[in-house]
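User: Hi! I'm working on a homework problem where we have to compare a predicted structure to a textbook description. Could you give me the structure for the chain below?
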Amino acid sequence: MTQVPGSPDPDLFLYDTMQRQKVRFIPTTPGRVGMYLCGPTVYSDAHLGHAKKEVAFDVIRRALMHFGYAVRYVTNVTDVGHLQNDSDDGEDKLLARARLESLEPMEVADKYFWSFNRDMDALNVLKPSINPRATGHIPEQIKLIEELIGRGHAYEANGSVYFDVRSWPGYGKLSGRRLDDQEEGTREEVREEKRDPRDFALWKRAESGHIMRWESPWGVGFPGWHIECSAMSLKYLGEGFDIHGGGLDLQFPHHEAEIAQSEAAGHPFARYWMHNNMLTIGGEKMSKSKGNFTTVRDVLERHDPMVVRFLLVSSHYRSVTEFSGAAFESARSGYRRLSEALHEVERRLPSAPDRPDPALLANIGGHVREFEDALRDDFNTPRAIAALFGLTTDVNAALNGGEVGREALEAARDAYRTLGGDVLGLFAEGGPAREDDTPVVGALMELVLKARQNYRLNKQYAQADELRETLSAVGVTVEDTKDGPRWRR
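Assistant: Happy to help. Predicted structure tokens:
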């Protein structure tokens, strides 16, 4: 997506995890934002945690664009080096899946990469500006490791290379963990070749039988999990880029390691850090061990993707999102209210009179300001949605009161399409609000309503009721008003 910077909003505030407070956002380059998001490890289908993260930062990206910024949005694909239990020991997650499915590792990576993209497309998540893969950037990772060794912050041991955490006093500043308080070791047995159990791998020696392997100055091996994000974010966004995002679970050790290895190599790193919170299912954190692990695909088979997205944006990105039957029902009702109001506005526009509605126009403008003020305050989507509901209340009152002027209807439509659609991503192209507004559907529905009126005039009430019930069964509601019958989805 090519963007030209506009006049950026100067009053945008975000919560910076590093500073532990809301701060005014000031980009490195006026009018432009460099943004990096830790992407998926492509060894299985995307789960609801992925959906929460991707939608949260998609809205942040869209909001920045709405406020006039040109955004370069980079999100990586981890297809090597992410070991089981997120440790420095154990089997690569892709290799384990490849053996399970009798596939080559790159077949697994491609299979789940495209699966992830299909899920995100369904949720109306914009594609990244750049979507680099770890396996495509081995030279950049090796170069960064060489810089760290040269500066005395990394060491080679038996064909592997480790970052020396004791050499970098700033290690732990993002998470607030003091080095001496950090747990020594992990769930896996600590490698004796490490100088300190808290040192983390930059490059791993490839054991016999390890399929994913590359030549390096230290022998045949593969990169560690953390080094890829430093190498790729610096390559595509440059030193001191603006925003680094990811899930709260990545704050330590992944993001902590990124900061240490980048800055220790002499490269100023991300200036703002943003983390989305987790989600719960039935009040409990999603976990395979608890049996409540749910994939995005499973959810989309049961729910409208826009309802799922509405549920995700209904909670603040830094708050926990609850996935439950009641939560989905509330989201379904809320999304229907907005989409039906938009549909009715667009249905009435072609025949709207050219007359002023100053009161409604003023109310619409007020709700637009409320929406934008909410997003200026650390992308507060619950408040933004409340502004859309306030808009809907005023629009429905005007529509129920009779004819509404064209200018006011156009302002309402633009507010829904721009704020609810372009910013929150709730009205995807081809969604219900647009499908019902095609000339063919509109003309057919006018014929159906005339047929029903004729039934009623001829006192054929059973046939009129049958027609109304048939429409209701496919999700179309017919309302009898003082101005005649009207329909809505």
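For your comparison, note the following. The first helix runs from residue 48 to 66. Confidence is low (pLDDT under 50) at residues 184-189, 430-437. Good luck with the assignment!
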